[in-house]
Amino acid sequence: MSTHEVVFSKSVRNEGAREITFAQAVREALAEEMTRDARVFIIGEDVAEAGTVFKVLTGLVDEFGTDRVIDSPISEAGIAGLGVGAAITGMRPVVDIMFGDFITLTMDQMVNQAAKTHYMSGGKLTVPMVLRTTLGATRRSAAQHSQSLHVWFSHVPGLKVVVPSTPYDAKGLLKTAIRDDNPVAIFEDKMLYQSKGPVPEGEYTIPFGQADVKRTGTDITLVATSSMVQVALAAAEQLFELGISAEVVDPRTTVPLDKATIIESAKKTSRAIVLDEGYEAYGVTAEIASVIADGAFYYLDAPVKRMGAMDVPVPFSPVLEDVTVPTPKGLVDLAKTLCGQV
Amino acid sequence: MSETGQNPNAPAALEITDLDAEQWLQMYEQMCKIRSFEEAANELYTSARMPGLTHLYIGEEAVAVGVCEALRRDDYITSTHRGHGHCVAKGAEVDKMFAELLGKASGYCRGKGGSMHIADQETGNLGANAIVGGSAGIATGAGLSIKMRKSDQVAVCFFGDGALGQGLFYEAMNMAQLWKLPVIYVCENNQYNEYTHNSETAAGTLMGRAQAFGLHTVQVDGQDVGAVFATMRELVERARRGDGPAFMLADTYRFHGHHVGDIDRAYYRSKEEEAFWKGERDPLQLLRDKLTEAKITTPDVLDQIETGVRSAVEAAVEYAIDEPYPDVSEVDSHVYA
Amino acid sequence: MPALGMNQETGTLLRWLKAEGDTVKKGEPLMEVATDKTDVEIEANADGVLGNVTAQEGDEVPVGHVIAQILAPGETPKPKAAPAPKAAAATPSPAPTSAPSTASSAGATGGAAVAHPISPVAARVAAEHGVDVSQIQPAGSRIQKEDVLAFVAAQAGTGTGAANGRVLASPKARRLAQEAGLDLATLTGSGPENAVIAADVAAALAATVDAPAAGQVAASAAATAVSDGEQTTIPMSRMWKVMAQRLTESWTTVPHFYLARDVEATRLIAWRKDLQARSTVKITYTDLLVKLTGAALREHPRVNAAWHNGEIVENTHVHIGLAVAEEDGLLVPVLRDADRLRLGELATRRAELVQAAQGGKLPLEDLQGGTFTISNLGMFGVDRFNAIVNPPQAGILAVGRMVDKVVPVDGVPAVRTMMNLTLSCDHRIVDGARAAQFLDTLAAYLEEPLRALE
Q: What is the pTM of this model?
């Protein structure tokens, strides 16, 4: 294989910036936006004194009070609906849905109300709301608390969908989401909350629809979202030792999707694997793989491959659960095959 | 079910002299406008000039008018698939409504919403909703927004008895009562969930549902615009004062089928029942009789109002027919703001 | 006829419940109508007298069509409407089938090669296989990918299955092989299922370079010149490779013969001078040659024919290709309907094509479909030369420079401006006599151009 170069992108690098956790980055984004804009508030189950079950919002209620950090009944459909109504009438709500699995309960409000209101009203009404929730398995939480269902929202025109993979991205993207005039769903990886990364102090936002090349390479493109970015970076490091130069592209938002960067990378390397923790069938990986097949066809030297969650309900037993999620080892093996190293 | 039973919160009956003649005539005119609008919509539909599907409000006019006459222009309403009446009563212009019904560019939603989705933020109409019960959250969210903004607006959620089958209502009413939100839930009980009588779909009582959350509840004769207005005026005052949400059950009747094509209805309700409501319980006729008997006005004046409204509606229909369709390039505009 | 449901297009009148002339009241049952879902009773929508009834019981009528009127007392019926159209008649008459093209008419007049519309995918597949799309007879009105694959399969004699004999190769390998002019079938694949991948193409290319650099992988087609001190291997452009391939094919498979003739250019020169004086467009001798050659070809269709799969196929149109030298090879942009273009149009078009060719911006369609070619090297001082036929065309005309010569005129030496024409032909299509007749016509036109315009 050709010469290896490893260049981390700006967002990963951020040399000199202080290191904070993913959870702190989320809290900081919320606090900054609530300070900046009095219309911003948070509503959800156990968001106030409890600071959410993941302790992401700890302390926020002390700063902004229970009028703006509102503990709700366990009524996902209801709070999503309240979010839509408040957004239409001048507020900028952040609706907290504890587990991504529970977005099923918000479906009518998100899909038929939030996503459609601007269009059905001929552009008169806008719904500037954010739905914050989680994704990801391997917390031994079994089938109803482990799914990554972001593709459900990605399928619906009118919604934007954000899948941050680093503390830096989490903060910048959440701030953009709050300022966006459309309904935005942001899925945070539960397993990443305690991971640390450089986050500069002070104001910054990250535009939607702009992929981030987390590592540059020349032999194979690994397109990875959210939790899978770390898997891809770990695999890239191992592949490097094997003489394979992998490029890791993180779309950061599945809607809008930065097709150009993904296609450009696949053209450059001629090979691509797409990773996402959602179910593989009809999933994010399927969509992105088709984007690559369509846009880079004449540059591909191997079939585009996908790795997603195994198409089974997430099992409880650790030995079972661990095989349902893509791992660096599985990714390395697949990449080697595509690059002709069997 | 037209419920009978405890109705302790009913306001004292509205005396005819409680309102001046102008107010009564304004309500009559609004009801006529809805009736005339719906007849024209029916005509447009059956003459195959209107695409899609439409659900007529004829028979229920007193509810929309009685409610909206008690509201300010900046108060919010959310509406239903049977929403033309709410829209007119809240002050929308019928020409832009017809244009929307026909999918024209000058319609309220640039032809993207149609009969079941008219929204008009100018008059506080947050939109009609074609998901039964779908707007319970939105109206309640508007109430939350009002409270957070420390405004004295109120939000009214119109829905039918069928929507009480949806769980969202109970989540929303619970939160509205918990947080004393200025939301008034107006249940238009026309007795039928599409083609099924609500005695087959609702256990317990309709009022009991709201009472369970401790909401202020009141039942009203939905064919008596004066009664609806008087009740609503009180509920609005309560809400503006910060006394929280209320639930109003308005007993009414859908003179037409579930939608315009629902002509053959004998399998779910009798012609005799329909004849009774149309003959004895027509809200327009009831108001006419009341005003003429009390000598508030004369039949001539009422006829004149009716004629004026009809010609305005006819002109609006002609306007809408002549208006251009949206350019096809608009198809993907307004997906995102 | 009322619309009673979504997407309902017609209703069937089952029964009138009132007769024409009856008084009806609003809300009274008027008729029974059947839709595709149900039978319903329709109520009168006004008070009055039923009149102007045009639909009979059993009629299926489009919704929205007036089938009767309810007349107010004293109102006179409007002129009797036309009888209710039957539903079948209400559907629009079938639209003419797509593009009543030259296809059918030309096809009928004798097997001329006809340009069918072609889908972009099919065009790409055809280009990949080096197939002349004008030879493909599509199953429908438009050439689809399947048509191309079927044609390729038939050509290869591998039966009808398009997948039969198809070389497995990655998309990138296919593209690189095509750009390098390499036949995928000659390569050994090292990818999954022995598919040819990009590395295999690169290796094959490196092997063909007779230089020490062969050991290195020449992945890029744009390699630089390699020298060992004795010889220098010049990298070829893609265009050059294509030229090399095509002309080799022609030289080795087409039986050439040549006819030469000197013609006097005096009148041609005068004609051009005269034309130029009246034209704002620059008119060249090449333009006049194209124009006159077009006229001559029109009279000698055999020289405008093509060799397709062992058959002689006369072309309906006269599309003349002009050989244009370019740094990286030879291009032959095509002047369509050269015989029908006015000289001004022709000169303008020629200038556009030559400019585009030299700028490397010539669209593919301007390089396809030529029926005859002219190569003019007069401007390079060449007196005469023999050109190689551009298959599947029948002939190519090589034009030398104009030069003053002493020639006998009426037995007396005189100086005249002369030029040489050498016609190369594919003997499978044209014999010597036919070619000579064409050349004679062309010579006569050049010596007296106005005859061509008669």
A: 0.69
